[in-house]
Amino acid sequence: MDNLRNEFGRFIKYKKDNFCIDCNKKISQRAKRCFSCAKKGKNNYMFGKENKWGNHTEESKKKMGRKGRKLSEESKRKISKNSSKFWLGKKLSKEHKNKIVMTRIKNDSYKHTMAQRIALSKKMSGKNGSNWKGGITPINKILRVSSKWKIWRELIFLRDNFTCQNPNCSYCNNKFGGTLHPHHIKPLSLYPELAFNVDNGITYCKDYHLKSNLHRNMQKEC
Q1: Is residue 59 scored above 90 in pLDDT?
Q2: Cα–Cα distance, 184 to 146 (Å, whole number)
Q3: Mean pLDDT of the chain
Q4: Nearest Cα to 176, choosing from 158, 201, 153?
Q5: Quick check: is 134 in a domain?
Q6: Which pLDDT band holds residue 103 (cuts at 50, 70, 90)?
Q7: Is the pLDDT of residue 94 over 70?
């Protein structure tokens, strides 16, 4: 260890590199030997000491490990039957497949009927659902996710020939197709009974529907 001074005159502790006594590998400051040399020969703490448990015989080694162990034919058959890879590469016959289908139909496990679907949906929807949080989602969002909303949307687009109904629209120039939005002529918040009425809907392009403040103007008029 040498003491040196820096630019400000303060002492700096300079640490020299420490090397192993046996193999000259770079090691930590406090150690004398590296990890491998410390366990070789006389340096090992078990050097010259007897093992309390004694050395294992060949019979005990065979019992402990599976290397070199031979299985009987019966044990091989049991493993092949119980293993998950038993059916890999094997094909079922048509008769076997038909039996599986018929048993599933009899037990109603192959496909649910409409009555079963309705019963399952009632059990999992509303307060019975696992994600129920007291009815936080607004009605507007519930309506837009329903299948009736999708049908109402498609009927309006078909009636208006998939074109924006804003005359001389500066956003889309009344081109066919594009990103279209269905718009309620009478607002949904005030007239929920007209939510799925086709006469209450009209087709607008996305930019005109979002940027023209249609919903604010409707609220002022109402």
Answers
A1: no
A2: 16
A3: 79
A4: 158
A5: no
A6: confident
A7: yes
Number of domains comprising the chain:
2
Dihedral-angle region of residue 30 (phi above 0 means left; psi in -120 to 50 means alpha; beta otherwise) = alpha
Q: Judge whether 187 lies within some domain.
A: yes
Q: Which residue has the tokens 């590469």?
A: 89
pLDDT at 1: 44
pLDDT above 70 covers a percentage of the chain that reads 76
Range of the domain at 14: 2-43
Distance CA 217, CA 185 (A): 12
Kindly state whether residue 147 falls inside one of the protein's structural domains.
yes
Q: What integer is the mean pLDDT of 51-66?
A: 65
Q: Do residues 163 and 174 lie in contact, with contact meaning Cβ atoms separated by under 8 Å?
A: yes
Note whether residue 124 is domain-resident: no
- Rounded distance between C-alpha atoms, residue 103 and residue 73, angstroms: 34
Q: Which residues contact 202 (CB under 8 A, 6 or more apart)?
A: 156, 160, 165, 182, 183, 185
